[in-house]
Write a structure and sequence with these properties.
five-stranded antiparallel β-sheet; alpha+beta; about 550 residues; 21 helices
């Protein structure tokens, strides 16, 4: 009670006559007033017009600042009506005079004020909750990441939220002059017109997608739900809540484009691309890869990969693939032969990788055609081991094979014979008719000799007009007999060059190979036997004898 002690005493007496229990707190200073308002909530406030350091009007202002909605009753002696009116205008709830007739009615007045205060408090609380609810709704409406719109039946916008306007690039004033058709992407006009008509009929549409055009002309993709706002059975507007899925659509489009590029690269890659499961079955193969093997893709899907692996390489490849499933190594590779549908051979260099997160496990296999490389390597190896003129093995390869015999475990027990051949009269033909004639003669002699070799014999051209024959697992008498047959065939051979006809002979040295001799020694002794045959008159077969060295020194 902001009042004088006299006024307070009068009011207390009036209240106590009517109420058995009442709490009254009196203040007459502003500091005490602040403290009282902080300590407790009061149902009624009685106030004199003027207190020690504040007035009733200041009291009303203070309660407003503190948002205290407690009724205030001004008590004043007679003659203060004009001042009381100013107090009522400032927000005072009631004015009473401090006279006996007024004070007798004070308890009833207080009851009415308390009831009114409770009603006001309840209404205030309800209004507060309503305001808070509206504020929460407005906060959600304005700050949600969704685009929210309300469109009238003629397509004009009734309201949009901040996110809608920010995304579309329009101000709130600009939206007021827009129509739905102004922001629809041309691709979405027809479908949205149909949907809008359905909404006006009271339908609700869920999970719809369409495109808008922003103020700058950028296309954005939206997805969400739409519904009709109906009043008295009539649709008065439509509302929509959408999410901006532009980035998602762009990502999906980019993924589709990437997948198409990958699929194109996969299908048209110049290599064989396959995926294989743990059972060795082909799960997929690219079109070019299947074509390289002579098959259609459908002929290989579900089939065992073994069917296109060369039988001699199957065990190695199967073991390699099994290791890649158990201990994958993306850096490892293997080269082997595949078999085409027509039976031809395709050499491939293969790398594999275990596909991550695949269930069940599978390998991605890339095979590159290296047939040409292998053919070139084979050709180079052949050239390195063979004489270019006669296609017989050369001296280097011959000595390599001879070394292999010398190093074999059965060398001391098996019988092997080395024969050296030197054509007689070759120089005369070469000099008289030229090197072309000499080369042709060597080719024909090579063909003649090759036709008389056994399966285990090795024929080589050592250089010039010299040849050598390694007769493996051949008794000495048999070797001499074969050498004599060769001599006779060359003796009977006739060589024609243009208008000339030539005959020639051959000197053959025979050396039975023995343990304890190196390859160079064996070659020298066979050569020495051939030289002795020439010394003794040419066109003959001579078996090596230690005395040949004496003859050589004469």
């Amino acid at each position: 009670m902001a009042s004088s002690a006299e006024t307070t005493s009068i009011i207390e007496q009036a209240l106590k006559n009517h109420y058995s229990k009442v709490v009254i707190h009196r203040v007459d200073k502003k500091q005490d007033l602040h403290q009282a308002l902080e300590d407790q909530s009061w149902q009624l406030v009685f106030s004199d017009l003027e207190l020690t350091d504040f007035s009733a009007i200041e009291l009303i202002s203070l309660l407003g600042e503190k948002k205290i909605n407690t009724p205030v009753i001004l008590i004043k002696d007679t003659g203060a009506e004009e001042i009381a009116v100013h107090c009522l205008e400032a927000g005072m709830n009631q004015f009473i005079q401090c006279t006996a007739p007024y004070l007798q009615q004070l308890p009833l007045l207080i009851e009415a004020f308390i009831r009114r205060a409770e009603e006001n408090a309840a209404r205030y609380l309800l209004e507060k909750k309503l305001r808070e609810s509206e504020e929460r709704y407005l906060d959600i409406f304005e700050n949600t990441s969704d685009l929210i719109q309300c469109v009238a039946t003629d397509g004009s916008f009734i309201y949009t939220n901040t996110t809608w306007r920010h995304t579309m690039g329009y101000t709130e004033e600009e939206v007021q002059s827009l129509n739905l058709l102004d922001v629809l992407h041309p691709e979405s006009v027809i479908c949205c017109q149909d949907r809008f008509a359905r909404l006006l009929n009271g339908e609700s549409l869920c999970c719809i997608e369409f495109k808008f055009l922003t103020k700058s002309g950028e296309a954005i993709h939206l997805a969400g739900d739409c519904g009709a706002i109906v009043k008295n059975g009539v649709t008065i507007s439509t509302r929509g809540i959408f999410k901006n899925i532009t980035e998602k659509v762009k990502a999906e489009d980019a993924l589709k484009e990437s997948e198409l590029r990958y699929q194109s690269l996969y299908e048209n890659a110049p290599d064989i691309y396959t995926t294989i499961n743990t059972a060795g079955e082909i799960l997929s193969i690219n079109r070019i890869g299947a074509s390289m093997l002579g098959y259609a893709v459908s002929e290989l899907i579900g089939k065992s990969a073994v069917m296109v692996i060369h039988p001699e390489d199957q065990r190695t490849v199967i073991e390699y693939m099994g290791n890649q499933f158990s201990s994958p190594d993306a850096e490892s590779s293997i080269e082997y032969r595949k078999i085409r549908k027509d039976g031809s051979v395709l050499w491939v260099h293969q790398r594999v990788s275990l596909e991550s997160n695949s269930e069940p496990p599978r390998l991605f296999v890339v095979c590159r055609d290296v047939t040409e490389k292998h053919q070139l390597e084979k050709q180079l190896a052949h050239q390195a081991a063979h004489d270019a003129l006669t296609n017989l093995i050369n001296r280097r390869e011959f000595e390599f094979r001879l070394q292999r015999i010398v190093c074999s475990a059965s060398y001391d027990t098996d019988q092997h014979v080395l024969c050296f051949l030197d054509l007689d009269q070759f120089k005369k033909i070469n000099d008289s008719c030229g090197h072309m004639a000499g080369d042709e003669l060597l080719r024909q002699i090579a063909g003649l000799l090759d036709g008389q070799m056994r399966s285990r014999d090795t024929l080589a051209r050592l250089g010039g007009d010299e040849f050598a024959i390694l007769m493996e697992h051949c008794p000495l008498d048999k070797a001499i007999s074969l050498a004599e047959t060769i001599r006779e065939s060359i003796e009977q051979f006739e060589f024609y060059w243009r208008t000339h006809r030539f005959t020639l002979g051959v000197s053959i040295g025979v050396f039975p190979m023995k343990g304890g001799f190196a390859v160079a020694d064996i070659m020298n002794m066979a050569d020495l036997a051939c030289y002795t045959a020439k010394k003794k008159g040419r066109n003959r077969v001579h078996l090596y004898h230690p005395d040949d060295m004496v003859l050589d020194n004469q």
